[in-house]
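Re: your question from the hallway

Yes, I did run it. Sequences:
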Amino acid sequence: MDVAGALGSRVSVRARPVGPSAVLVDVAGPGEALALAAWVRDRSLPVVEVVPAAATVLLDGVDPAAVLPALAAWEPTAEAPTGGLVEVSVTYDGEDLDAVADAWGTTVAEVVERHAALTFVSAFCGFAPGFAYLAGLPDELSVPRLDSPRPRVPAGSVALAGTWCGVYPTASPGGWRIIGRTDVGLWDTRREPPALLPPGTRVRFVPA
Amino acid sequence: MRLHVLAAGHLTTVQDRGRPGWAHLGVPRAGALDAPAADLANRLVGNPADAAVLETTLGGLAVRASADCWVAVTGAEGPVLVDGRPRGHARAERLPAGALLELGTPRRGVRSYLAVAGGIAVEPVLGSRSTDTLAWVGPPRVEAGAVLPVGLPPGPPAALDTPRPGRPGPLRLHPGPRADWFAGDPVAAMCHAAYTVEEASNRVGLRLAGPPLERVRSGELPSEGMVLGAVQVPPSGRPVVFLADHPVTGGYPVVAVVDAGDLWRCAQLRPGDEVRFSLARPAAAAAPTR
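Structure:
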């Protein structure tokens, strides 16, 4: 539904109902999702969960009739908020380094250099507590997933899939291409916030 | 006071009302799957609504308390024994210190709740004592040999309470965000079909076998946030109803959402049970929940 017309706003927000108490708002990409999630939190709109993702923001635990008009005031911006910068020390010895080098048409040494030169942004968390989808890999460096996931990827594995980079907070099955490992704690429920890389955090990888 | 666990059956976990508000960090909400049953058990022993209880799956739980206490068992109905003598379901019962409380296999339903006056007082994690079985956030699953702390009883147990009426009939569906990924009117198609609960169902989701929904869009849906009760349809076309421990994001289209008032029924459906759906009336959705 287009909620802009109701308030005569110039901005059009497209939102899909998700049952009676949630809406899924379409956005142009992860940067816009982050911006909208921050905007909703800043306004203290009555909402239980704000879940930014790749191309949507889920607002759960809301009265759609109340929240949709409020959203009309949002002006879409692709500019991601600049959160804190976290440096993650990596030992680049992942078992998929060669495959990534092949995909990029370069050498393993060059893969490490390029990866460590990028600044990523945590776009959203999902899959596991503290697992952040890190955006920042350019399209031409997109990496295919494994055809069949590994049954166990060790905690601390630094891996790539598509244009995403991620660090496994705990050991789990996984189909991403592993390029290295880190000892940094990604998830600690006694820490505030418990995730090291909550959405909006900027991330750089530093060769150990 | 402490509760000594002698047997835990298939799966016993500590549950309260869950930990909503952490989905953006990847944390499932968790919480009692049959929330009205857990609420009733707490009311019966005089606990506040947010006290933690034990959720046990298909019976098999056996405990001893270190001091006299009030207990109540609700949810899936089966034998409740104290030192081998039958006790009532869904009523406050006195459990003497050292006596053995056993929950037998329920005649129907899946999940039973044991409330103890004072509540299970394990350390909360991110504001909740619920165990999430997807990522194991929260206290560890309850195993034989566990010793669980119990809080101070808040007051006398309720003299009486009204068990909820059963609600036979179909589960009510609201339209979901990605119905347009399927041929025709997929919600109507679900309302005309009969489904069967699959063995692989758990606290994460109720898995259903039935006529597959036909997708009209190929390709992948970028991961997006998921709600409690979402009916997600993987490439097999067989729907999964997301329950309390569901992943916070998912990449399969959500065709519909089960009405919040029917989620407790999903918690009590057994493998092989038949499931039917009907379209929820928008008016019903606006009615206040209990």
